[in-house]
User: Fold this.
Amino acid sequence: MTAAPFLQEGPVIPDGVYTIWIITLLAAVLVVLPLIVFLLQRVLNAAKYIARYMGEMRDAGVGIAGNTQHIAALDDTVEIAGRILDTAGMINTHAETIKTTLSARVGGNGKE
Assistant:
C-alpha cells in the first residue's frame, strides 16, 4: 500500500531561509524597535511642549480678557460724563437766568 498524498512531507526549507529570518528578526528588534521608541519619545516631548505653550497662551488670553472687560465700563463712564456735562450746561444756563431775573427784580424796585 502507498501512503496517502496528504501525508507526504512538505517541501524542504533550506537552512539559509531560517538564517535570513533570524537576521531579519534581530535587525527589527535591535535597530527598528529602538528607532521607533526614539521617534515616539520625540513626538511625546513635542506634544508636551505644545501642551505647555497652549496653557501659557490660555492664561495670557484669560488675562487679556480680564483686563479688557473694563473697556465696557469706561464706555459707560464716557456716556454718563457726557450726560453730566449736558446737565451742568443746563444748570449753568438756568443759573444765569436766575441771576438775571434776581438782578432785575432787585434793581427794579429793591423790595421784591
